[in-house]
């Protein structure tokens, strides 16, 4: 049936286009670095904390206490239970530090950040996560950047990767910084900041209404809102915030699922970007990348299920699969990946598909903090991945009755999804 063939090919073009765009954005060129001998604004560092290991928070305090900057403060906002908060209170805080607890933790992470901002007195605001570690000169560099821009995305870098998963995650993060942040910034495209490494003038944040509470991807939302309000977010490639990679495949799955949920939840809002011309269209694609990645596979799944009633041609399957594989090979070549594991794309398909769908439906979502301490994998049965795998198995069996190649492709996808640990 021609309609099914067209949808299959279009979904492959959509998924492949974003993969190719990521490859195209990648660059080794570095943006200019502003001089650091200009004005130095008072800085407030705000960190939202929930279910964090006290040793992780203690390490953050020790790291930030060594900042070489004349005027700054650190506000740690805890959404922990009273018992866990008492453990945090055992940490010795320097004079410039403040640890507070919200009695009513509403609005998710964005609510905690807004609470911290309400207590701040700085002209510039820096938002970090508990596992962040920074250079002593970071505020000097941020102050220089914010003398030229109203908001800045900072460079993330994974520190001390130990196992293969963490090495893979580190390489993915490096490529993402060089492509989706550095590359897009140099091409004049809208930069959507990562909430783990973000700086903004306090006056600008106040003008746009602060963080939007209740959002799972509060950083993506504020990035879109800044763009819609005409605020150009810069990218500070020289300002590095070190972070940690997930230790286990389960942790990575939950983190990717959360990213995808946040994107799906913001889908209606992302459509407002379309009225801002080509940059807005590209921004909307960026904002929905977690749904775009698995779009092709979703269409293949549907095509297999409806195959007893609606036929699809072998040509459309071969053409679309070839296009997707070529784009994936180009991405692999451009990203200069040294480590590779088939579990990564399999994990992405399952996590992005389930997370994005739940976000679109605005289903109930439980925020799970990615653990920052080393621990054993333990027994993990990825329910979502298995369900999707069995759906592809069913789809393949249905397609095999009339279409050998199409059914075989679907069965192969089913098996690949089962390799996730």
TrEMBL record:
Keywords: Glycosyltransferase, Membrane, Transferase, Transmembrane, Transmembrane helix. The keyword Glycoprotein does not apply. It holds the Pfam family Glyco_tranf_2_3. Its main location: membrane. The chain crosses the membrane at residues 6-26, 285-308, 314-333, 345-367, 387-420. It is a multi-pass membrane protein. Gene3D superfamilies: Spore Coat Polysaccharide Biosynthesis Protein SpsA, Chain A. GO terms for molecular function: glycosyltransferase activity. It is found in: Membrane. GO terms for cellular component: membrane. This is Glycosyl transferase, family 2. It comes from Metallosphaera sedula (strain ATCC 51363 / DSM 5348 / JCM 9185 / NBRC 15509 / TH2).
């Amino acid at each position: 049936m021609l309609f099914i063939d067209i949808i299959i090919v279009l979904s492959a073009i959509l998924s492949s286009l974003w993969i190719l765009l990521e490859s195209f954005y990648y660059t080794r060129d570095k943006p200019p670095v502003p001089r650091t001998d200009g004005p130095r604004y008072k800085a407030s560092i705000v960190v939202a904390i929930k279910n964090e290991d006290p040793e992780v928070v203690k390490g953050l305090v020790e790291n930030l206490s060594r900042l070489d900057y004349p005027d700054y403060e650190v506000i740690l906002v805890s959404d922990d239970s009273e018992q866990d908060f008492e453990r945090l209170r055992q940490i010795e805080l320097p004079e410039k530090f403040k640890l507070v607890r919200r009695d009513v933790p509403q609005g998710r992470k964005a609510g905690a950040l807004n609470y911290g901002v309400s207590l701040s007195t700085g002209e510039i605001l820096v938002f970090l996560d508990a596992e962040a570690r920074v250079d002593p000169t970071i505020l000097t560099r941020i102050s220089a950047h914010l003398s030229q821009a109203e908001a800045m995305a900072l460079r993330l870098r994974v520190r001390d990767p130990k196992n293969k998963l963490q090495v893979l995650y580190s390489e993915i993060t490096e490529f993402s910084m060089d492509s989706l942040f550095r590359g897009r910034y140099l091409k004049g495209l809208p930069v959507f900041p990562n909430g783990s490494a973000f700086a903004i003038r306090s006056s600008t944040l106040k003008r746009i209404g602060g963080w939007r509470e209740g959002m799972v991807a509060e950083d993506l939302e504020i990035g879109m809102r800044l763009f819609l309000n005409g605020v150009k977010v810069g990218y500070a490639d020289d300002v590095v915030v070190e972070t940690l990679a997930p230790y286990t495949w389960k942790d990575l799955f939950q983190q990717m699922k959360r990213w995808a949920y946040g994107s799906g939840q913001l889908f209606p809002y992302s459509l407002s970007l379309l009225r801002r011309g080509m940059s807005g269209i590209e921004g909307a694609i960026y904002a929905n990348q977690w749904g775009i990645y698995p779009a092709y596979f979703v269409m293949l799944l549907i095509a297999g299920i409806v195959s007893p009633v609606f036929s699809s041609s072998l040509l459309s399957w071969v053409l679309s699969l070839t296009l997707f594989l070529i784009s994936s090979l180009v991405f692999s070549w451009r990203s200069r990946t040294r480590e590779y594991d088939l579990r990564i794309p399999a994990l992405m398909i399952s996590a992005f598909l389930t997370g994005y769908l739940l976000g679109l439906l605005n289903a109930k979502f439980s925020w799970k903090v990615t653990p920052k301490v080393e621990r054993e994998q333990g027994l993990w049965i990825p329910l979502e991945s298995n369900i999707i795998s069995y759906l592809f198995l069913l789809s393949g069996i249905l397609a095999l009755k009339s279409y050998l190649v199409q059914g075989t492709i679907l069965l192969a996808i089913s098996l690949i999804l089962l390799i996730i640990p």
